[in-house]
Amino acid sequence: MSSGKYSGFSDVAKQAMMQTQESMLEIKTRKNKLYIGIPKEVSFQENRIP
């Protein structure tokens, strides 16, 4: 009685055992820094960034 009733659950459990497991990996910190520069307006006709 129990084998027929839980056969679907055992199939799901078997599939869950075969899936890959996630794990945290250590990442390296970069020594290079990224600088984003905004060019200064040379003409005073358009002022987009004050």
Structure description:
By secondary structure, this protein is mainly alpha-helical. Helix content is 32%, strand content 0%. The chain contains 2 helices and no strands. The longest helix has 12 residues, at 7-18. The radius of gyration is 30 Å and the shape is elongated. The model has no long low-confidence stretch (mean pLDDT 75).
The percentage of residues in β strands lies in under 5%
Instruction: Report the end-to-end length measured between terminal Cα atoms.
Output: 78 Å
Number of strands: 0
Output the structural class: mainly alpha
Order of helices and strands: HH
| Continuous helix count | 2
Weakly predicted, low-confidence segments: none
Biggest beta sheet summary: none
Q: For the residues shown, what is the average pLDDT?
A: 75
Secondary structure: helix percent:
25-40%
Radius of gyration based on Cα positions: 30 Å
The gross shape turns out to be elongated
Descriptive labels:
mainly alpha, elongated, 2 helices, 50 residues
Describe the secondary structure blueprint for this structure:
Blueprint: H1 2-5, H2 7-18
